[in-house]
UniProtKB/TrEMBL annotation:
The enzyme's E.C. designation: 1.11.1.-
Family: Belongs to the catalase family.
Protein name stated in the entry: Catalase-related peroxidase
GO-annotated biological processes: hydrogen peroxide catabolic process; response to hydrogen peroxide
Length: 366
């Protein structure tokens, strides 16, 4: 990792232990990408963003200054180029401005900033696209194609099931089994986690927004969409033996090697629903036969360690949206802003108070 990435606007806007616990932690890691920033929760059950982050923290060791989930990652930068089809669907400036600057972060699921890259089931991409009119579009995407819990309450139950039992130091498999028994959406996620092949690179992985948003065009027409970043690099599976032999920082090192030979590209593809498709439940995937439109191309050109990189102090809140893009009524999406903000506040406070040397030193792996 070499070149310096431009400084961003920093305004706030374990591996598995037992099979069932492993699924829970996978979901937690990915879902933390969701819950991560948002502070939500209703009043009746006193479900708060603070309480949710407390629960996430209880699932593992303390790592001051790091994100509470998806703790390990690298900063990346490049640009985004929209297409005519994108401009037809949305008036967002990102689709009309040539080569919009992008700051991003590639990461793995889980709350261990020293975890083994290749062992992570979930991989993630977060982006901040800043257009020349001063607007920002922030995204948080994951390699899984749908969410593992249908409601905020279910996701909290899942997270609690991942808290280690003081008697064993490991999550109680019975609690995760009870959660899986209650929610078919979680079992579907479990089946995906067990069967989907793992790629051998961040660069050839597809990243999915999973939530529904609305694109709004110049005529004021609203179109529900779900977006994905689909790699132009061909998919290559990494088998179990390769993962076991890989270095702890395998993905970061492999990304550096690829970037040394040129930019890495993903097509931004939006899927349009048919009548009856779920708009407010990210645990319900839309059929693959739905119409899809390529609305832009993301090119990444540089990477930098997060400890010293400009993405470290960015909150990739998925509800920071430009004109031409609007959120749906998905309650999990709405929740993310508060949880993300709570997590951001805690880690920035730790850094500011000098209690997070590991998160701010490049002695720590990416």
């Amino acid at each position: 990792m070499t070149s310096q990435i431009p400084t961003p606007d920093r305004r706030p806007p374990r591996r598995s232990l037992l099979p069932l616990a492993a699924i829970g932690l996978i979901a937690l890691g990915g879902a933390a990408a969701f819950a991560w920033a948002a502070g939500w929760m209703g009043s009746s059950g006193r479900l708060t963003s603070q309480g949710f982050v407390d629960t996430i923290e209880a699932t593992g060791a303390d790592h001051p200054g790091f994100r509470r989930a998806h703790s390990k990652g690298v900063c990346v930068s490049g640009n985004f180029q929209g297409t005519a089809d994108g401009r037809a669907l949305s008036s967002a400036r990102a689709f009309s401005q040539p080569a919009v600057p992008v700051l991003g972060r590639m990461s793995i699921g889980g709350g261990d900033p020293h975890g083994a890259d290749a062992a992570a089931r979930v991989r993630s991409m977060a982006l901040l696209i800043r257009t020349d009119d001063g607007q920002q579009w922030r995204m948080a995407m994951n390699s899984f194609p749908f969410f593992g819990a249908p409601t905020l309450e279910a996701f909290l139950e899942q997270t609690r099931a991942g808290i280690p039992d003081p008697a064993t130091g490991k999550p109680d498999p019975a609690k995760m089994a009870a959660f899986l028994a209650r929610y078919p959406q979680a079992r579907r996620f479990q089946a995906w986690a067990k069967s989907a092949p793992l790629s051998d690179s961040w660069a050839n992985t597809a990243y999915n927004g999973v939530h529904t948003f609305y694109f709004i065009n110049a005529a004021g027409e609203r179109q529900p969409v779900r977006w994905s970043m689909r790699p132009q690099a061909p998919f290559v599976e990494m088998d179990k033996a390769q993962r076991e032999q890989a270095s702890a920082d395998y993905l970061a090192e492999e990304l550096d090697r690829r970037l040394a030979t040129g930019p890495l590209r993903w097509d931004m593809v939006v899927t349009l629903p048919d009548a009856g498709d779920a708009l407010d439940d990210p645990s319900q995937p839309w059929p693959e036969a739905r119409r899809q439109v390529t609305v832009g191309t993301l090119s990444l050109e540089q990477a930098q360690p997060q400890a010293t990189g400009p993405c470290r102090d960015v909150n990739f809140d998925p509800l920071i949206l430009p004109t031409g893009v609007a959120a749906s009524d998905d309650p999990i999406l709405a929740a993310r802003s508060g949880v993300y903000a709570q997590s951001f506040f805690r880690r920035e406070r730790e850094i500011a108070s000098g209690k997070a040397a590991g998160a701010t030193s490049d002695e720590v792996s990416p």
